[in-house]
Amino acid sequence: MIRVFLNFPLGDIYYAYPLYDKIQHLVLPALMCSMAFHMTNRLKIELKWKLIFSFFVVVGILGFFEIVEYGLDSVFDLMAQGVFVETPDGLQVVQSGLDDTMVDLILGFIGAGMYVLLGSFFPRKRS
C-alpha cells in the first residue's frame, strides 16, 4: 500500500525532484525487509538466518521489479527506466536506463542491508 501511495498520488514529484526515485529505492527495501522478517519471525531458527532470508527475498524481489520495469519499457515505451526532469522543452534525460537500473539495485541492496545490520546489532526482545 505504501508503494502504491508513493507512486500514484505522489508520482508527479518524480519529474520535479529526480532524487525522489532514489529515496524510494533506499527506504522501501528496508520496509520490505522488515515485512519479510516479521513473516519469518515465528519460525524456530536463529536470528541471523531470518535476517539473511529476509535480505535475499528482498534482493530477489528488487531484481524481479527491475526486470518487469525493463519489459514494460520495452513493450509499451513507458519511459520507466532512466531519470527524467521536466523542462519547458519536454523531458530531459538525466540518467540513462542502465545507470538508473544499477543505481536502483545498489540502493535497494544498501537499504535491505541496513535493515539486516540494524536487526543484528539491535535484536528485538521477545515478550
Polypeptide structure, described:
Helix 3 (19-40) crosses helix 4, helix 3 packs across helix 5 and helix 4 runs antiparallel to helix 5. The protein contains five helices and two strands. It has one domain (19-121). The chain has a two-stranded antiparallel ribbon. The protein is mainly alpha-helical and 127 residues long. A hairpin with a 2-residue loop joins strand 1 (83-87) and strand 2. The protein is elongated, with a radius of gyration of 17 Å.
The shape, in one word, is elongated
Uncertain runs are none
Distance between termini? 28 Å
Count of discrete alpha- or pi-helical segments spanning 4 or more residues: 5
Radius of gyration: 17 Å
Q: If strands are numbered along the chain, what order do they take across the biggest sheet? A: 1-2
As a percent range, the share of helical residues equals: 55-70%
- What integer is the average pLDDT? 84
Major beta sheet summary: 2 strands, antiparallel
Number of DSSP strand runs:
2
How many structural domains? 1
Report the portion of residues in β strands: 5-15%
Structural class: mainly alpha
Query: Helix and strand succession?
Result: HHHHEEH
Question: What topology emerges from the helices and strands here?
Answer:
Layout: H1 2-7, H2 13-16, H3 19-40, H4 47-76, E1 83-87, E2 90-95, H5 97-121
Antiparallel strand pairs: 1-2
